């Protein structure tokens, strides 16, 4: 019996649960110019940033977005519904060429099936500083604006 | 090649600063009617700085044939409809106009009369001296002469799907009636159609225009995006230009980008765009607003939002940044493009556009094709997704140009 694919928003909880997020702030739909990063884990200390692009299918669109996310996050993933993962994995060399990892998401759990690669990026520190400034501003103003914070 | 800039009242200083980078101005009726004093004052002063600059007021009448939320009719819509009179005013604010609204030839001639008269009167508006004074000073003029620049007059126009579409006939009748009001060689009608695929034979349009004595047109495929167009559509575009050119009708693209510039080689006389946008336009779009910052990447001949532009500059390196002071400056300083300010992005775009026009004018078709192919080869090294997304349109342009 085939399982009905979930809505994209339903991928969120299993992915968040998969990461050990102690020491991270979780940001939903972090704004990166005109785009939004579905899920951004911002470390409180000197750890790596993690970005996740959620997609039920359309692995290529997810990869494209995740490759853009890597300008901000040291590690960038696409999280796909488990039914779409096999198709993405047949193109894993493409994912590797962009350093993007793959997370397979089931009904109530998620797991990494392809690890991302760390890609250095000279503009990343300043982009991260911009986001941190926005987070600080959102907390100070008492409104979140484009950034929605979840308790980690 | 003529380069028209579409006027918006919130970028006046930009028009002054880049005065030498465009040859004409197109002012939408909605702007002219909603901000009449400011638009007229600014236009009069700007045109006095360069009396060779052409100008036109774009009726954008097709808006009223489209479906949009008429519960949200705003004052600019009312002012726009008022210019044309009925049926725009009596029906067009409540429902989409239909060709049947113009079966009564009185309606058609009345709307056309009012549309043309509005344009003719606009150049000689009687605005209070004190209002004009502001713009005289802004442009650094000693006096404020009357407008003597060449004006292109545009009859009402509507979007048609094919030559059998009743809207085609309505548009042609509007042009015909306009020729009874002003000399035909002062008219530059807008030929506005749904898609390239819908027009099988441009000779039919060309012959009808020639019979009216029309010497120039603005070609306006609705919402036509050069980068997304199939090669067959691009071929149709090139054929259209060739047919019109052969019949001594000079064609300008009302909205266009680099592909339109390339079509100079096929006979296109000019093209228009907005300040940092406007390479395509959906005539059903009824809202305004300032676009978000986008960065023009000259080698890709397209705007990208800063997040998408960054990897191209980071991974593509010198090839994509070298031609631009802005992109080079940001790359060398490791500054992310998300920090580009709106004004910087617009200035950069105008500079790029001028470079593109000069580049096409000074190169052969062969070398323009080679330049496009070269970029595609570089994109292949940047990444397969970049090659697919940004390279394929360039390949299609090159193929069309070589045909």
Strand content of chain A: 25-35%
The geometry of chain B reads as globular
The CATH topology label of the largest domain in chain B is: TIM Barrel
- SSE succession of chain A: HEEEHEHHEEHE
What does this structure look like?
The complex is a heterodimer of chains A (152) and B (403). Helices cover 33% and strands 30% of the residues of chain A. Chain A has 152 residues and is an alpha/beta fold. Chain A has one domain: Trna Endonuclease, Chain: A, domain 1 (3-Layer(aba) Sandwich), CATH 3.40.1350. Chain B folds into two domains: 272 residues, Alpha-Beta Barrel (TIM Barrel); 108 residues, no CATH class. Helix content of chain B is 48%, strand content 10%. In chain B, the strands form two sheets. In chain B, strands 4-3-2-1-8-7-6-5 form an eight-stranded parallel beta sheet. Chain B has a two-stranded antiparallel ribbon with strand order 9-10. The interface between A and B is medium-sized, with 19 and 20 residues.
Provide key terms for this protein.
heterodimer, A: 152 residues, alpha/beta, Trna Endonuclease, Chain: A, domain 1, seven-stranded mixed beta sheet, 5 helices, B: 403 residues, TIM Barrel, eight-stranded parallel beta sheet, 48% helix, 10% strand, globular
